[in-house]
Amino acid sequence: MRITRSVAGRRHRTALVATTGLTVSALLLTGCGGSSDSDKGADANGNITLTVADFGQFGYKEAGLFEKYHELNPKITVKEDTTAEEKNYYPKLLQQLNSGSGLADVQGIEVGRIKEIVDTKADSFADLSKVIGVDEWVSWKAKQATAPSGAVIGAGTDIGPMSLCYNRELFEKAGLPTERDEVAKLTEGGWEAYLALGEQYKKKAPSGTYFMDSASAMFNAVVSSSPEQYYDADGKPVYETSASVQKGWDLAAQAASKKLTQGLAQFEDQWQATLRKSTVATVVCPAWMAGQISTYAGDANKGKWDITSAPGNTSANWGGSFLAVPKSGKNVDEAAKLVKWLTAPEQQAAVFKAIGVFPSNKGAYELPDVKNATLPYFNNAPIGQIYADGAKSIPEAVLGPKDGVIKDSISTQINNMEQRGTSPDKAWDAAVRTIEKAIG
Question: How far apart are CA 323 and CA 51, in angstroms?
Fold first, then answer.
């Protein structure tokens, strides 16, 4: 899982969430006091500048949180250094960790990288276990950032509980139900039932349309709904024997052979154009994906889409990040306070309202701006309820240091099955060769 949520999911402003407004007083409640003049990074007047390095779109700028933090703490100014692509951000972070210089006061870490950081660089980061309320996060989120020593090196920002986005207009034209409860019932049998629905769609599908955009996205959803994915609990790669990988691969191969998928690489130009043209009926939809669809499908397709629960009775997580505090920083204590504030329920709710990424802090789920949230673009889908319900059934997954390499290698070969007609056996062999070369 190099990036379990595409960087494109962070780059672009998501659809506005219809909620009640967060009050300034609610945000003020979680202020963490003024700065300490003993901080090494303070100037002669006790003023401190905290730097936050992240990638894509974390939503703090859109939610106005850095400005609010300065209002609460007049001696502290927060500056954000954003890298557009996580694939460019992470190698730079590793270089800075290895050299011990150039690090920001706060560093963002993608969930697909957190295992490698925990295993190899945990000593470079401050232990946040006594600063943040670890129990406030969904349990598996906190464990992902916990080192064997018990140190918690990152506070969870968001998660990506799975749902299913579908085009109501295309469903209606294909003679399928359009109400979200009815669609959920048709897929309650799991991803196999999802494919069966695809075959129903294909029988009366409008010309030039496909049931799904990408079989590799479905593969990722299947694998992400299982505790065992690419590694076992001992840290051994098990992708060749993993039941979830095999199931996801077989279903992807079926989707390709039955021509249920358009075979698009998500987030690329052709995928964006396809959304504008409304030629795909369903998209596997972690929480942040709704923003992608509304952005690229555009105003002309507003109200044509809807959101329902993910197939089956076990949800999946696709995406999410962490905020970590390097020990080498000049303002470690103040940086930790900032991280605590940014990841508190009120601030996570504010980010959700601003850009649609779903909180990892459970305390946010009962706040009006999350609990009552709907998406007007998606036929007023009650996303606060859908995502919160999904978050409750996400299994605690075993992560590995090279999850991303494995997932990307398999996804490439799934695309080859879709686009080039490569046989499943040849595609799998090619994936294994690539993985073996990459991870040894």
Answer: 12
